[in-house]
Design a protein that fits this description.
The protein is an alpha+beta fold. It has helices at residues 17-24, 37-41, 97-112, 150-153, 165-171, 174-189, 253-262, 267-279, 281-289, 295-312; strands at residues 60-63, 71-72, 82-86, 119-123, 129-134, 147-149, 201-204, 210-212. α7 runs antiparallel to α8 (267-279).
Length: 320
């Protein structure tokens, strides 16, 4: 059964009309690109590139001139409309990373209402998989918006270990604190161990305020590498990141409940958030099944989700 390369809608070849609007301003774009990763990498050879999962996830920049297909940008400083990522260069199931990131982002958006950087699963001209995401740091008139990650906001010495998620949450507005709690629970349940300070950002609004940006770089890192359940400690007293690699601190829903209370989120709101996640396990598994992941990757992804849900449900939070 064909799935939309954007939202995974059934019985859709390429992109559905909704995704054509969201991603490409109503243009009909083929999920089969006309260039390869090498056409991008050779243009930016020797220039800084982006990295995330364990420091090795490459990214490039592409654009879409009016009326034609996506094309590589000549220079990283040239205005681009999309970020593109090839498959990982190493690690387990490395060729599955584009499909992994794509389905994880779609789960966040569709099942939990988390605002994301709009994205799609595509293929390079040689058939290898690619992940693209639409840039959100430009306004409708093409003006660059200010974006600042939390390494900068918190003046952290390192994107890992130097700060906690509580440090991040305390900086946010009350509304953003609710969003942040949902994002953390989501990443825990879907196996993302790479939500470090550079993967959490503030974005300038039209009014000039700095608010939590759309989520990006969401993926189940556990199917590729062995890492901790979360990239940072929830609280300073939870020394997860000082443990040997792969040793797990077993976060439970009581920990996230306590996290919400420390951020002064009202108890009924925390309860509704936790209840929502508790109801969505089967829907997560169903979306993984309809994704572009291979059979082996789907199996590992689902095993990890089931294991994390078991941890999450071990305790009932004190709602006092």
């Amino acid at each position: 059964m064909a799935q939309c390369n954007g939202c995974l809608k059934d019985n859709t070849k390429g992109f559905c009309s909704s995704c054509e609007t969201i991603l490409f301003n109503r243009s009909k774009v083929s999920p089969q690109l006309k260039f390869n990763w090498e056409d991008i990498s050779k243009r930016i050879d020797g220039q800084p590139m982006g990295f995330s999962i364990s420091g090795v996830q490459r990214k490039g920049f592409i654009g879409k001139p009016r009326g034609i297909e996506l094309i590589p940008k000549m220079d990283v400083d040239e205005k681009s409309q999309y970020i593109i990522k090839p498959m990982l260069s190493r690690f387990n199931l490395s060729d599955q990373s584009p499909a992994n990131e794509h389905v994880t982002m779609q789960i966040a958006k569709q099942l939990f209402g988390i605002k994301i950087a709009e994205c799609a699963f595509m293929n390079f001209a040689n058939g290898t998989p690619a992940y693209i995401t639409k840039r959100f740091d430009y306004d409708e008139n093409g003006k660059k918006l200010n974006q600042e990650d939390f390494v900068s906001v918190l003046k952290a010495a390192h994107k890992y270990i130097s700060k906690t998620y509580q440090n991040v949450g305390e900086w946010l507005s009350p509304l953003n604190r609710i969003d942040f709690l949902r994002i953390l629970i989501f990443n825990f349940l879907t196996g993302n161990g790479d939500v470090h300070l550079k993967n959490i950002s503030l974005l300038e609004t039209a009014d000039g305020d700095m608010m939590l940006s759309p989520s990006y770089d969401l993926m189940n890192t556990k199917i590729h590498v062995t890492d901790n359940l979360l990239a940072l400690n929830l609280f300073e007293e939870f020394e997860q990141t000082s443990l040997p690699l792969g040793k797990k601190y077993n976060y439970k829903n009581v920990d996230f409940f306590e996290f919400g209370k420390r951020l002064n989120i009202r108890v009924p709101i925390i309860t509704r958030i936790i209840d929502l996640f508790n109801k969505k396990e089967n829907e997560i598994l169903a979306m993984v099944d309809k994704s572009f992941l291979s059979a082996d990757a789907k199996k590992l992804y689902k095993i990890n989700v089931v294991e994390n849900y078991k941890l999450f449900r071990q305790n009932t939070p004190d709602k006092s």
